[in-house]
Amino acid sequence: MLSCQSVAVSYAAGRIVSMPLVKVDLDVAAGETVALMGPSGSGKSTMLRVLSGLQKPDRGSVRINDTPIRTSRGTTDPRVALVHQDHRLVDFLSVRDNLRLALEVRGVAFQPDRIEEALASVGLADKMKRMPQALSGGEKQRVALARALVVGASVVLADEPTGALDRANSESVAALLRGLATRDDVCVVVATHDHNVAQMMDRTIVLQDGCAIAAETLV
Ligand code: ADP
Ligand code: MG
Questions:
Q1: Which residue from 9, 37, 46 has its CB within 8 A of the most atoms of ligand 1, so it is best to mutate?
Q2: Please, are residues 27 and 3 in contact by the beta-carbon 8 Å criterion?
Q3: Among all ligands shown, which has an atom nearest to the Cα of 159?
Q4: How many domains does the chain have?
Q5: Which atom of ligand 1 is nearest to the CA of 9?
């Protein structure tokens, strides 16, 4: 269970202070998928960074299974994998080595079987030796998901993962996120503008005036 209580984040740029997150409360159960919506600038990326441990909130707490999230500069909590819109694969490493690097970074021993399994689960077992530039946008995003999966994260956060994809690829990425949640009991939170993607998740939360509101309660 991912749990976030009374989270507040403000940014100061000179004399101007903005407060995208005022009081965010959110619980995501293991195996649950949540779409995080809201207009550009509403704080979705900020929220995901806070949930991942990359950014410390001004106030409030984030816990995974009742243990506080670890916030240290530049890295996420080891229990969390964060997937970006631009997938952030390492260009000069093959698909397999991108996954291998993710394991190394987390201090997990290199396990070829685990890498193959993760790539197979996103339908890319046959592209293991490809370089990222030889993949389509949808395939790159699937590699990024496999990378999140291979490290055994219990929380997967995706920041507009389908923002650069067409409808068919968006649906396939959303379906993979769902599958990951149900199969591995992972908590999934996806920031998205795409109602189609949101509909494939268990529920939708909208960031409005700095709070997380259940979409069905909005008029
Ligand atoms: P979203 O992902 O929903 O578009 P963001 O979390 O990126 O929203 O941004 C929320 C608000 O916080 C925006 O007004 C943005 O300009 C501001 N913001 C985000 N990051 C920073 C930063 N590092 N410094 C100052 N302001 C920021
Ligand atoms: Mg954003």
A1: 46
A2: yes
A3: 2
A4: 1
A5: 12
Residue 130 belongs to what domain range? 2-217
Q: What is the CATH number of the domain that holds 39?
A: 3.40.50.300
Separation of 58 CA from ligand 1 center, angstroms?
Answer: 14
Cut 0.90: pTM above it = yes
Please state the length of the chain. Answer: 219
Residue 36 CA to ligand 2 center (angstroms) comes to: 10
The Cα-based distances of 157 to 18, 46, 53, 174, 193 in angstroms read: 24, 12, 11, 12, 15
The Cα–Cα gap between 93 and 85 comes to 19
3-state SS, residue 103: helix
Q: What is the pLDDT of residues 117-143, one digit of tens each?
A: 999 988 999 999 999 999 999 999 999
Could you read off the pLDDT of 136-195 as tens digits, one per residue?
999 999 999 999 989 989 999 999 999 888 899 899 999 999 998 999 899 999 999 999
